[in-house]
Hints:
Elements: E1 9-17, E2 23-27, E3 30-35, E4 42-50, E5 54-64, H1 90-104, E6 130-137, E7 143-148, E8 156-158, H2 167-182, E9 197-205, E10 210-217, H3 224-232, E11 238-243, E12 255-260, E13 265-269, E14 272-276, H4 286-300, E15 308-312, H5 318-323, E16 329-334, H6 337-349, E17 355-359, E18 376-379, H7 388-396, E19 401-406, H8 409-419, E20 424-432, E21 442-449
Parallel strand pairs: 3-5, 10-11, 15-16, 15-18, 16-17, 18-19
Antiparallel strand pairs: 1-2, 1-4, 2-3, 4-5, 6-7, 6-9, 7-8, 9-10, 11-12, 13-14, 19-21, 20-21
Amino acid sequence: MKPPRTPQELVVRTEKMVYGGQALARADRFVVFVDDALPNETVRAVLYKKKKQFAFGRAVEILEAAPERIPSDCPWTGDCGGCTFRHCTYPAQLRFKKEVLVESLHGVPGAQELVRDLVPAEQTTDYRNKMVFSFGATMEGELRLGLHRRGSFIHIIPADRCLLQSAASREIVRRVAALAKQMNIPAFHEIQKTPGLRSLTIREARGTNQRMVELVTTTAYPGLAEHLLAILEDLVDTLYFSIDTNIYGSPRPEKRTILKGTGTIEEVLNGLRFRIGPDTFFQSNTAQAEKLFTRVRELATLHGRPSTALDLFAGTGPIALHLASIAGRVIGVESWEPSVLAARENLALNDIQNVDMIAADVNEALPPGIPEKVDLVVVDPPRPGLSPEAIAWIAKLTPDTILYVSCNPSTLARDLKLFLQSPYHLEAIEPFDLFPHTFHMETLALLRRNP
Ligand SMILES: C[S@@+](CC[C@H](N)C(=O)[O-])C[C@H]1O[C@@H](n2cnc3c(N)ncnc32)[C@H](O)[C@@H]1O
């Protein structure tokens, strides 16, 4: 039998934050990315992954703390995979995120000096309008309902005190966990694939206070649906009990039963109404999304009103709906059919007539139905960003303005470099904090066609 390997420990001095929420330190010839550390700290780090030129570690002792360090208000800091910045003051979180963005834009002509301070969030706790919790068990077999332990897909941390959700959401978690224990229903086991409870999703429309809850199990349990309705009746507007027999990957319910309500809730964002179903993508921080979309609309009219605008990666249409009041005609393009249908419903809900939604893959060729000349293109891709093909066909349409909404500074930098090979220049880069206490940010970049 091989002797157990003792984890390697290092004392390092950290330099700066990197995208991902770690602090970078240098030790001899390699770089160490340290979890739970801030810049300018001396920490004792335990390495958990080592490559030839870099390693990943975790700060287990802070020998010299940065002035920005504060005691965390969450008992699960360091263990939970959710927040990475709970031990850091909020102004410093914003500063570190800006530094990461500036560094990511290194090599993009004219970009770094344009980066503004992040637009901060007024509400830094209880801000998420959607939370997905998983069921699991302790080593002793006790059921748990909560969030995944950092880096683990089976270990679950209890979430009845998670500070990213509202008090009502915490209460729902508490009641459902108690019910499961009382009924003695096990959690689905991710490795052994034994049946049981899988996930609990809570969505809250912040503009209307409506709440939707979905409990997903691998099989039906006698009496569970009835009890679920009884314990949550006063807290939810729409309640789903769903069965998912796909035992590999994340839950994808194939049988849904609506126990209460219409099956959707309604959100209001900047006065626009959005219907949200159990599978609908919607920005998870309503208050900050309002600021982001307001700014998209402002920048879209900076040089006059567009007569034709494209909203690419449109989702359920929030950007297209915002542009409808300032553009002559808007075309939204989205590849996921249910979102296209939801976007069309949202257009009808708001009595908007000048927006069309097309189902197509933006990353392939120019979708059919797009006019030869457009004035404005807004893109809001997922983390992998745009394909070179998409950048080429967008540039060929010669829009006067391109607005890029990005959730990933590295793919933003890569794509901006490509756009700048066409006759475009950068006019603004404005980051927004939609995710306080995490390393994530949204960035709005404005490109203008050269005269
Ligand atoms: C970051 S979300 C933005 C959605 C919307 N703008 C919003 O704010 O709610 C990205 C969207 O792009 C869609 N998407 C992903 N890949 C796509 C592709 N290749 N072509 C078109 N849409 C795509 C996803 O389904 C998702 O709705």
